[in-house]
């Protein structure tokens, strides 16, 4: 009697389920990204404002151009 060829039994396990993305998750990520943009804009504004302030202060100097200054 002839023996039948044996084939291996392959079992594929399904991938674990991924967590669902809800509307709340999307909103929280959008708010976080918006907050990062706002923070970056505030920092850039403070830095640029400080640079302009220093430039105007330094440009004034001791030169008397005939204008009266309040010295505020």
In words, what does this structure look like?
The chain is mainly alpha-helical and 72 residues long. The protein has one helix and no strands. The longest helix has 38 residues, at 23-60. The termini are far apart. The mean pLDDT is 86.
Q: Determine Rg (CA atoms, Å).
A: 35 Å
- Name the poorly predicted regions: none
Helix content: 40-55%
What's the overall geometry? rod-shaped
Question: How would you name the oligomeric state of the polypeptide chains in this document?
Answer: single chain
Number of helices: 1
Summarize the structure.
With 72 residues, the protein is mostly helical. The chain has one helix spanning 23-60.
Write the layout of secondary structure elements.
Elements: H1 23-60
Provide key terms for this protein.
72 residues; mainly alpha; 1 helix
């Amino acid at each position: 009697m002839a023996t039948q060829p044996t084939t291996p039994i392959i079992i594929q396990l399904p991938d674990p389920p991924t967590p669902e993305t809800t509307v709340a998750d999307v909103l929280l990520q959008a708010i976080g990204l918006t907050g990062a943009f706002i923070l970056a804009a505030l920092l850039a504004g403070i830095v640029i404002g400080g640079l302009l302030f220093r430039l105007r202060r330094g440009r004034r100097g001791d030169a008397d151009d005939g204008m009266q200054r309040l010295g505020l």
